[in-house]
Amino acid sequence: MPDACFFLPVGDGHRLWVETRGNPAGEPVLVLHGGPGSGCSPRLAALYDEARHWLVLPDQRGAGLSEPAGERAANTTAHLIADLETLRQHLGIARWRVTGGSWGATLAIAYAAAHRDAVSDLVLRSVFIPSRARVDAFFGGELPLDGLAADLDHVDPVVARAAALAWWRHELGMAGASAAATADDGALDRLVLKYRLQAHYLRAECFLGEAAFFAACSRLAGVPVSLVHGREDRVCPPYSAEAVHARLPGSRLVWVEGCGHDPFHPAMQAAWRVALLSSD
Fold it and tell me: Residue 28 is part of which domain span?
C-alpha cells in the first residue's frame, strides 16, 4: 500500500498532494474538496467511518498542498478528471465510492459521467451548478468577480490581500458565519492563491457550463446517487439540488432543515452519515 501521504506527479509540472486514511481493507471512498481551490481540510475525514472506509483525499491541482500552489496553467476540469483516474490507477482501485460537497459534488458528477465504470455510487452534499448566473448571484453585485480577479492579480500585494479578505468575508457571511473575520498577511497570501484559482474556474463556468453539467447528470442513469442539501443554503441555494435531482435518474434527495452550507453543522453531519450508510 502507498504511504499515508504522498505527492503524485500528474503532468504539466503539477504534483497532487494525497492523503489516505482509514481501513485499507475497507471500501475505497474518494473525497473531493470544494472551492475550487480550497484543498482537503483534515476535518473532512471526520465525516466518514474510518473503520469501514479507506479514504482517499487528494488536493486538486494548485489547491491545498499540491504543487505549484495556486498554479492556473494546465488547470481545468478536464485536467482534474484525468488526475482522478491517474490516482485511482496508481492506488490499484477497481471501483470507488465518489463523494464531495459544493464544487466537489460538481466535480464528482463530471468525473462519474466520464468514468462511470470506475464509480460504485455518488454521495453528494450542497451541489453547485457551474453557471455564470449562479456565480453572479452569489456575489450579489457587491463584489464583481472580474474586478476581484483583477485585484487578486495586482502587482501590489496590499491590493491582492484586500481583495482576498473581501471575498473571504463575503463567503463567510453567505455561509452564516461571522463576516468580520481577520487574518495575518501569511494567511491572506494563501487566500490570494486560493481565490485566484477559484476565479480562474468561476469565470470559465468551471470549464463545464450549465448545459454540459446537466448533460453529464443525464448520463448517470443506473448509478446510485444520494444528494444532501441544507434548506437554508445561500451559497448553493436549494433550487440547485432540485435541478440536479430532476436530471439525475433515480437519485435520492435529502433535505436538512435549519442548515446552510456548512458541512460541519450537526444536522448536516448527521444527514451525511445516514446518506453514507443508506447507500451501502
Answer: 5-130+208-278
